[in-house]
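User: I'm putting together notes for a lab meeting next week and I want to include a structural view of one of the chains we've been expressing. I don't have a solved structure, so I'd like a prediction I can at least talk through. The sequence is below, exactly as it appears in our construct file.
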Amino acid sequence: MRKGEATRERILEVAEASVLAKGFGATSIEELIAETGITKSGFFYHFRDKNELARAMLRRYVDADERIFDDIFGRAADLTDDPLQAFLVGLKMLAHLLDDLPGGHPGCLVASICYQERLFDREVVELNRQSLERWNNRFRGYLQAIATIYPPREPIELGVMAEMLSCIIDGGIIMAKVLKDPQRLANQVLAYRAFVKMQFSPPQIAASSLAAE
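Assistant: Thanks for the context. Below is the predicted structure for the 213-residue chain, given as structure tokens.
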């Protein structure tokens, strides 16, 4: 990585940590300059203003999550041709990953931007919406592949069921942080996994497999 790229990456790294810890409004350019050891002109060389910084942070954050999802659910799919089993394995791997994070999950940048939406321009707000839709579309795709083989036991719209996972992860982050118990987040993902298993598995298989766990 070239020096300019390394400096830009360092600014984004410091900015993300600060925003997740105390919010975008409380994160100043002066603070980022001091933390990264660059000049003010050096900062503005990389980012014209805080909205441009927010766009770059959000793209970086979402791309990192996408790589994690690609890796986890890709490895799960390599283990079995059954889409239900692959999704269940992927969810368990995701729960283990979240449980192993040192100090717990730092927070969700998408949620942070949503909570302070008035601070951002329309482009940042729209990018935030698109980011969430990318996750929803990914999970909906997994569920649609499952539903073609295993009809759902209850009449629930697959898009809504896909959105549940995003809601559970963000809600689990809040629960874990407020109660100071990182395990809460992993437990919520595992609870969603159990729900998926009950929704798509034949009744006798769902009951026996859940009992075995």
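A couple of points you could mention at the meeting. Residues 50-79 form the longest helix (30 residues). The chain has ten helices and no strands.

User: Perfect, that's what I needed.
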